[in-house]
Amino acid sequence: xxxxxxxxxxxxxxxxxxxxxxxxxxxxxxxxxxxxxxxxxxxxxxxxxxxxxxxxxxxxxxxxxxxxxxxxxxxxxxxxxxxxxxxxxxxxxxxxxxxxxxxxxxxxxxxxxxxxxxxxxxxxxxxxxxxxxxxxxxxxxxxxxxxxxxxxxxxxxxxxxxxxxxxxxxxxxxxxxxxxxxxxxxxxxxxxxxxxxxxxxxxxxxxxxxxxxxxxxxxxxxxxxxxxxxxxxxxxxxxxxxxxxxxxxxxxxxxxxxxxxxxxxxxxxxxxxxxxxxxxxxxxxxxxxxxxxxxxxxxxxxxxxxxxxxxxxxxxxxxxxxxxxxxxxxxxxxxxxxxxxxxxxxxxxxxxxxxxxxxxxxxxxxxxxxxxxxxxxxxxxxxxxxxxxxxxxxxxxxxxxxxxxxxxxxxxxxxxxxxxxxxxxxxxxxxxxxxxxxxxxxxxxxxxxxxxxxxxxxxxxxxxxxxxxxxxxxxxxxxxxxxxxxxxxxxxxxxxxxxxxxxxxxxxxxxxxxxxxxxxxxxxxxxxxxxxxxxxxxxxxxxxxxxxxxxxxxxxxxxxxxxxxxxxxxxxxxxxxxxxxxxxxxxxxxxxxxxxxxxxxxxxxxxxxxxxxxxxxxxxxxxxxxxxxxxxxxxxxxxxxx
Amino acid sequence: xxxxxxxxxxxxxxxxxxxxxxxxxxxxxxxxxxxxxxxxxxxxxxxxxxxxxxxxxxxxxxxxxxxxxxxxxxxxxxxxxxxxxxxxxxxxxxxxxxxxxxxxxxxxxxxxxxxxxxxxxxxxxxxxxxxxxxxxxxxxxxxxxxxxxxxxxxxxxxxxxxxxxxxxxxxxxxxxxxxxxxxxxxxxxxxxxxxxxxxxxxxxxxxxxxxxxxxxxxxxxxxxxxxxxxxxxxxxxxxxxxxxxxxxxxxxxxxxxxxxxxxxxxxxxxxxxxxxxxxxxxxxxxxxxxxxxxxxxxxxxxxxxxxxxxxxxxxxxxxxxxxxxxxxxxxxxxxxxxxxxxxxxxxxxxxxxxxxxxxxxxxxxxxxxxxxxxxxxxxxxxxxxxxxxxxxxxxxxxxxxxxxxxxxxxxxxxxxxxxxxxxxxxxxxxxxxxxxxxxxxxxxxxxxxxxxxxxxxxxxxxxxxxxxxxxxxxxxxxxxxx
Lengths: 642, 482
Fold this sequence. Notes:
The complex is a heterodimer of chains A (642) and B (482). Helix content of chain A is 75%, strand content 4%. Chain A has helices spanning 2-18, 20-52, 80-103, 110-128, 133-151, 158-189, 194-204, 218-233, 242-245, 251-260, 265-272, 274-277, 281-304, 308-328, 332-359, 377-391, 397-412, 415-443, 451-455, 462-486, 491-495, 507-512, 517-520, 522-540, 544-551, 553-560, 565-596, 598-614, 620-641, and strands at residues 57-67, 70-78, 208-211, 214-217. In chain A, a hairpin with a 2-residue loop joins strand 3 (208-211) and strand 4 (214-217). In chain A, helix 3 (80-103) runs parallel beside helix 15 (332-359). The longest helix of chain A has 33 residues, at 20-52. In chain A, 53% of the residues are buried. Chain B is globular. In chain B, the strands form two sheets. A two-stranded antiparallel ribbon of chain B has the order 1-2. In chain B, 74% of the residues lie in helices and 2% in strands. Chain B has helices at residues 12-31, 36-56, 73-99, 106-122, 127-145, 152-183, 188-196, 203-220, 228-235, 238-261, 268-288, 296-317, 320-345, 363-366, 368-382, 388-402, 406-432, 445-460, 466-481; strands at residues 62-64, 69-71, 348-349, 352-353. Chain B contains 19 helices and four strands. Chain B has one domain. Chain B is mostly helical and 482 residues long. The two termini of chain B are 30 Å apart.
């Protein structure tokens, strides 16, 4: 059954990709959506199974690599962590497939799009079912590839090309770290199999290896390198620049890949490797620090953006930051819990935004929206649910996971934990603020779109609304229903050996003890403050934002320009590499290698050719002279040298 | 003097050919210029029958005429090549002679007589018969080179060839007299026996060797005795250039090989230095000087100088493999050159012959088959597999490497890279350049037949190489062992 879940999307992708012309648009939609939907149903069954009998199991598919000491088999690992990821990935993916039938109805390349989506699903599933590092790397690269293909789906757009290349390159940086991390693990343990590595991890603590004369703590270095991979995939501060640009892809892609699943691969990876990370406290602190900073920075940028998808993209990045600092304080279960709830409500928000964009004739700028809530009431309601969940209002899913994460950061009691707590609270205010800013700007106030667009604003077809409703169910109930199992009393039984937390690190346990009242309800309080502020700024006193911007022009510009990360990278890496490359091309290759080599030799040959044919004067006595000289030379040679 | 009458049967092909030559001459004299075509065909027939006689001759080595004349597998191989080359040349010349107002039966007769001289050269076993054969050939060649005596260029070519040829003959004779003076015999077997006895060669013998080699190097147009080649090739009428490029070259190379490997076989250390030098210089000059040429006949002249350089690589090795390499090279050389000249003979615009490389522009669009044939020959000459020319180079370079002449082999490969430039340029001109005015069509029957035969040989040599390879191996073994 597990194998069926993993390979159904691959088969569907194959059929839709290679035989799309034969089976037509409708056929491709049916095949892919059906396969992924079936996989989703099977995942639900598997999830139910895992609740009852949480025994981990592995299914060997084939022997893959066996070279010398290096062995990697193709095996599917199944435990609670896998089951959660399977559920999230297949359900969201199935909804996105269904939604795409409506959203992409007018696109000329439907089979290609559906094939890519299914292919992505396959890679994501093989990532989460990986039994060893190499297999995980396969899925890791595969989702990167699918992401590249889908960002660039509208390949006629130069901006899509640029965004896809950027996503690919930035991810390469992270993947490079991941690959190095795998090699470091292999050199430490001598195996890439998760079970072997997990068993060996406790003894590796404190083991060092020498690199360029430095003695490094092996486990810390390996974990940091692996985390670098996670940073790239999950758009953490430093390697995040590709995510907002990735919004060039079609909106269902943003929902599936750049909100719900692929970007959470880093979170999943660290959780999966919890038995290793637990023994590298330094690495954990780095994870927490980076996550907390990301949550804050992304939230500030989200405050100022006008593109509806970009706002949600920065919100995604910010929420990923939450998950990472949860991992950093050993609250792995909370991170995965948030991963799941976030997948539902963020996919909901994205698909809702897609519905708005669909209604507004592919307008994405919130400054050109407004006043449409009566025209698209279902979408409006869905966006409300998503925003409530994102802001962390009780009953809605986000409240349970986010609140726990922030509490766990406080409860961990470390310096970096307090930092994370502060950042988490600050980000929570801003999250609530920009969520309602988005809602108000998009749906309320006077219409700012032109007359023509407003006339055609319409509710999306049911094929798009049904996925919204399903995801809304998840966004509302996944928090309440999952709390007990994921992070409550039942968590030890549920997770079993899938996640390992050392006795002294159990921040969730501490967080569930009574904490000071203000801290316990901190996120809720600040969320309400944020919502109120947004109401004041954009409904009650619409002049306030402009006035505020005018007061803090410098700060606003800094944040609006995304903290100038892109410009900095452009200067440091792109321009520098161009400069070096140009120099090597012009002076290195052009002047030296071509000049001396091909061109130089060719020119010399030409000159020699001219000289050689110049010997031929046409005078007989010259010719005779040459012959005589030749014979004199030869005789002389023998006379003197032999 | 009461010597027994010499055995004639080993020399039967030569006797037959020279009698045919005389008969054709008489026929031509009586019938006048009208007989040009029939004399031509009869000459071809005579050459073919002679080739049949050569092949059908008794196996093994036979010496006759008091040791002046020898026939062995080596001689048979080379003679067949020469006869083929001559026959091809007469065939492709027919249309040219008729169009260019050169309808004279002497042409074919002279070629038959020159061919007779070449056969004698190849079978020479004595410095005297060598010289007689050489002069028989050369006298006929001087005349054909200047055959268009109303044309300044042709006359100039004939005169230059004659003057320089006389100089080279002088060198050869002087060398022969030195050899005789220091060894006491002109017979090849005698010289070989003398050297075999372990006598250290005297300075005089070495000098004689150098002079003889210089005389022969002139005939094969190896640098620095090559200077006549471009002028004569360009000046002589094209079918005669084609003939010059093929049959005399083969005969002279055969003679060169026989003299050096036969009587002077023990002096390989000395003559290898000469050949080494000539080979390197020919390869370099052949490839570099050709780059600047825009007349295709001049280009072919430098190309032939280069080819001789490659063939001499095999000779420089001095081994059986080396000789085999030379034989294979020359066999392939004959076919590619005849083919290339057949194409050049088809370069006619508005009834006039053209000789510029630029005139080939866009040939692929006008006459795709002709262009394809030329491309095959050019690829082959550049030594690009799987064309025949590649294998020619392969065997001589292999022999050089086995003889540890690494520098020679490397230089050979490098110069063939340079050579590839101008061969490929012709292909580029034919396939990618702006079309020049169309050539007069259609291609004559003889020319297209020769093109087909040579083109298929060049293209498909790699499929059936064994007849040539084994024949060359037998010939080389016969020479080196004998």
